[in-house]
Design brief:
- The protein is mostly helical.
- It is 61% helix and 0% strand.
- The protein is built from two helices and no strands.
- The radius of gyration is 21 Å and the shape is rod-shaped.
- The mean pLDDT is 84.
């Protein structure tokens, strides 16, 4: 399964880490009953998705399978 390369990019790791921290913050403040802290956690979750998307557009994400540029065939000299 790891050979597929799914999510093994700096963009994916950064987005997930920031979103995970936001999830933990929102969960902690939800238990404490602090609405502004919980909203701050939700904002962090959104920022994680935004950061991952921006990094992906900057070239730090994976290239979808169908959009890879075809490799040009090299000209071979003909014998004869």
């Amino acid at each position: 399964m790891s050979s597929s390369g799914h999510g093994h990019t700096p963009a994916a790791w950064t987005g997930v880490i920031i979103s995970f921290i936001g999830f933990c913050v929102a969960g902690a403040f939800m238990v404490l009953g602090n609405v502004p802290g919980m909203v701050a956690g939700f904002v962090l979750i959104g920022l994680g998705a935004l950061a991952g998307g921006i990094m992906h557009m900057a070239g730090m994400g994976s290239v979808p399978k169908g959009s890879a540029k075809p490799v040009a065939a090299k000209a071979q000299p003909q014998e004869g």
